[in-house]
Amino acid sequence: MKILFIGGTGTISSACAQLALERGFELTLLNRGRQPGWPGARQITADIGDAAATAAALGDKCWDVVVDYIAFTPAEVEQRIALFRGRTAQFIFISSASAYQKPPVHFPITESTPLVNPFWDYSRNKIACEERLLRALQEENFPATIIRPSWTYDEQRITVPVNSKKSFTVLDRLRRGRPVIVPGDGTSLWTMTHNTDFAKGLVGLLGHQGAVGHTFHITSDEVLTWNQIYETVAAAAGVAKPRLVHIASDFITACLPEFAGGLHGDKAHSAVFDNTKIKRFVPAFVATTRFRDGMARSVRWFDADPARQEIDAAANAGWDRLIAAYERGLEMARRELGR
């Protein structure tokens, strides 16, 4: 079976590429070629943002399945429809579970949960992409399948909601005994999924004609509170008693507005998913990586090479200012309202 991945080197797509190759698929990667490809995969080098150059690079080739990991706007989806109309039997679009209704009003979240997110442009764009693909399915039988991952991680990420792209930063804070920020009171429930587990579900849908026209989320069944998640990361780092500072999401985003979309639009709310549908379509799917084991791998990855241990000084300073402001406000409230 001939498979085309648009992308193929990111957190999610890299695990899917590896598993697809292991299972004997004929895999081609379409990307700018800036990251090393996977042994056994073919490469088409083009910037998908350049429609004419991409069309020239693709030539008259056809694929059984095209998986798009890097479309984020309706305009990009429109381009993909034009590029692959009549050239694939299945087009899989990677959307986002953050598109589900925020705040949630029903648990667990299923694929029929309404798509409403007034807080995050990223999520609203994903919703609009899904709507365009479903319209293409209805109007011209464009063979769309939609996948909604939740927070999916690999060994190169320390996954807590208040962190930097240089995610070793929070690990370093924990080890130095510096406080780390937990949104709310830390009791919201969340689902973390290792990329190798996500890949089992995605690869199981490749070429599945019964999946055309359907949407799926693919997540772990392990559910943890934010407190448990931070404590798990700390334990993996060898820290017995982390200093957790619980701060309301409204306070965090008022001081650090860059977190507004991700918190109010996603991580400030519990996220518990019903995976019945993906298990029905891919009976072999089961998420087997516990979060504690995934974080242990991540810590080992960072510790193996000092060059990976980048610290975001600006983020550190911002967090320290936020914590100091919160503690001043808390002390003032105690003085004025305490008994």
Write the H/E string, N to C.
Answer: EHEEHEHEHEEHEEEHEEHEHHHHH
How many DSSP E strands? 13
Distance between the termini: 72 Å
Low-pLDDT stretches are none
Radius of gyration, in Å, reads: 21 Å
Strand content: 5-15%
Structure characterization notes:
- The protein has 339 residues and is of the alpha/beta class.
- It has twelve helices and 13 strands.
- The chain has helices at 11-22, 51-58, 74-84, 121-140, 168-176, 195-205, 226-236, 249-255, 260-267, 276-281, 291-303, 313-337; strands at residues 2-6, 26-31, 42-45, 65-68, 91-94, 144-149, 152-153, 180-183, 189-190, 193-194, 215-218, 224-225, 244-247.
- Strand 5 (91-94), helix 4 and strand 6 (144-149) form a beta-alpha-beta unit.
- Helix 7 crosses helix 11.
- The termini are far apart.
- The model has no long low-confidence stretch (mean pLDDT 96).
